[in-house]
């Protein structure tokens, strides 16, 4: 059996499933999902031909670059930089113009980056895509800081609200074990409520690189609380830009203020969290503090949540002891972390989409005998049809 993994935007899956059922006006469906009819037909056609893989985000990189700077001009830029290594793109652009070569400043900078002539401390390029959720507690970002300078196997665990930058938690757990993280999250949920979604990287303990699905016991526990689990794209740390920038501020404080001995370190982190939330003005918030913008979530934490309720009439099956699903007389591996759990199966012609709670986790192509894990990347959410439970 062939299997792979992919990442898609949830609204595209919901759109093609509902479009394939033919129960609604195509125009009305496109309007609900805030897309044009040509885009809707494009998604539906790609899904019919390729399944979920066909509606992944397509690369917009051109196949060729007719306007690429000639190699001899690139070499001219490189030589000038090596002659004057302390000059940036703006100064070099002026010098090039004096020599009869007209280039935009951004083109000069691109050439320098391409040839490895821009140091990290010299680069201040903005993130290629900036976004934030519309309200507090729609998305929390979670990550461990680097252990450098903390005299521990791992740095503090940080949980940050995407909209307000409010620091939900800052804890020196000393390890990345699931039990330690879950204990801190239970305290945070009890104090701050439960978010709609959480964004993490592909690290321990919320991701298992050895499992086809990636799910761990911690992510399953989060999903049982009705939390959508999102993961940053591989090699794209800007997806978690807010918590990364917070870690930069924390590192600066560590270097300039110094850390107390181990037993006093958590008190230092608590005081820093208080200062960060209530005293430190934030430029992205118009000079306000995160505490002025954030408020607790109305969704309360339930240590013993009831079983997830799938839509009436949905096809629901319970996975086997090793996380398998039986379809058309054969077993398909879904996720060992979901062993014994109830999942929803949505059939679209020869394909079966498998949902756990509100998350699409696997596509099974019965005709091609192929099973594909679906990974949820974090994306800006502006679709009118993205909310709610599974299809």
Shape: globular
- CATH fold-level assignment of the largest domain: Nucleotidyltransferase, domain 5
Strand content: 15-25%
Secondary structure class reads alpha+beta
Would you list the SSEs in sequence order as H and E? EHHHHHHEEEHEHEHHHEEEEEEE
Briefly, what CATH class of the largest domain? Alpha Beta
- Count of domains: 3
Mind summarizing the main beta sheet? Answer: 6 strands, mixed
CATH architecture of the largest domain: 2-Layer Sandwich
Count of strand segments: 13
Describe the structure.
By secondary structure, this protein is an alpha+beta fold. It has 3 domains: 1-57 and 307-391, no CATH class; 71-122, no CATH class; 139-293, Ribonuclease H-like superfamily/Ribonuclease H (Nucleotidyltransferase, domain 5, 2-Layer Sandwich), CATH 3.30.420.10. The chain is built from 11 helices and 13 strands. Helix 1 (10-21) crosses helix 3 (37-50) and helix 5 (89-98) crosses helix 6. The radius of gyration is 25 Å and the shape is globular. Residues 121-129 and 378-391 have low confidence and may be disordered.
Main features:
alpha+beta, 11 helices, 3 domains, 391 residues, Nucleotidyltransferase, domain 5, single chain, 6-stranded mixed sheet, globular, disordered C terminus
